[in-house]
From TrEMBL:
Name of the protein described by the UniProt record: Membrane protein YqaA with SNARE-associated domain
Keyword Transmembrane helix included in the entry's annotation: yes
InterPro entries: DedA_domain, VTT_dom
Originating species: Kaistia hirudinis
Coiled-coil residues: none
Length: 204
């Protein structure tokens, strides 16, 4: 198999995976899946819930606001789990998670920024594509005031997911058409955003 054939095969698999996600997003268990991914991403899971949120809105426009709410609540509750890991289980659980994703330098940088920004760091970082688990575990390690942590998490995650949900609600039909017609280009753009997120982790 040539490199070109291998690349085409991988892209074909990704397109089928996308179609499967769209199918699941229209089903009865979609919101439970969204809640589970939102919870896990805030404490240990690498994949953000935004693609699933977008897929649900594309598949079921009537679910736009309930999906944004479920995504926010799942992320905030998962954030509390991440906070607990940082506050009481960092050496046993939190550090291995940070090391696994090679985020130790970013983690140290984040802790330093707490001295400058305090709770506002959560609002600033929570709106970017960086892993939210970095924010939640670090907040627990520095023992950020829990009320401040919860309020900041609700504001930042709620705003992010409402924006994502609204964008796909407003431009959903056009977005689905673009994805179907230019799937490979969309995947490249998505990969670029992930790379940008990790750049932001290190330098901001």
């Amino acid at each position: 198999m040539t490199d070109l054939e291998s690349t085409a095969q991988r892209r074909g698999l990704m397109k089928r995976a996308f179609d499967k996600i769209m199918e699941l997003s229209a089903g009865p268990h979609a919101l439970w899946l969204l809640a589970a991914v939102s919870f896990a991403e805030a404490s240990f899971f690498p994949i953000p819930p935004d693609p699933i949120l977008a897929a649900i809105v594309l598949a079921r426009r009537d679910r736009v606001w309930i999906a944004a709410l479920v995504c926010t609540l799942g992320s905030v509750i998962g954030g509390l789990a991440g906070y607990a890991i940082g506050a009481g289980l960092y050496e046993v659980v939190g550090k291995p998670v940070i090391d696994f994703y090679h985020l130790q330098d970013a983690f140290n940088n984040f802790q330093t920024r707490f001295d400058e920004w305090g709770g506002w760091i959560i609002v600033a970082k929570g709106l970017t594509p960086i892993p939210f688990k970095l924010v939640t575990i670090a907040s627990g390690v520095v023992h950020l005031n829990l009320v401040t942590f919860v309020v900041a998490s609700i504001v930042t995650r709620g705003l992010r997911f409402v924006i994502v949900a609204w964008l796909f609600y407003r431009f959903g039909p056009q977005a689905r058409a673009i994805i179907d017609e230019h799937f490979n280009k969309v995947m490249i753009a998505g990969t670029a955003l992930v790379v940008l997120g990790f750049v932001l982790i290190v330098y901001i």
